[in-house]
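Lab notebook: predicted structure, single chain.

Context: the supervisor wants predicted structures on file for every construct in the current expression panel, including those that have not yet been purified. This is the next one on the list. No modifications to the sequence; it matches the entry in the shared construct table.
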Amino acid sequence: MNEDPTVTRLREIAWRRPLTNAEKIELRAWLGAHPEAQAEWAGELELSRVVAKLPNAPAPSNFTARVLAAVEREVQAQELGNARSRAWWWRVFLPRTAAAAAILVIAFSIYRMNEAKREKDLVSTLSKISREERVPPTQALEDYDYVADLSAGVSAGVGADEELLTLMR
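Prediction complete. Output recorded below exactly as produced.
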């Protein structure tokens, strides 16, 4: 049907009550200008008459309680949906955080095992050295700094005594 305001108003009136003579005249004038809508209007008026003849269905005694319970269920469903939407990050980030923590623990354990192995190797090497019979005399270790200073001076080009260098070779 056309969405002319006049027709819309007359249709809504016809749903609620029979049209008055003035409204019927107004409808006939409109239908005269729009003959293609006449069949649709006839169906609309017949349907309104049939619905008007139907008896009013009595409301059940617990109608209000049922409506309020339905509203309460809908409110609870919305609140549950809101709670689920707030907790989405638990489902997303908690497993990822747990996996990252497990990887860090494993990496740290491997690092500590390698450190312990290096320490064990160092202790083993030091114990072998300490058991070695050919330890340099302490006098050679005491003169080490002096000899190191001499060789540092030669490599730096400091005026070294040529005669001393010849003797050392």
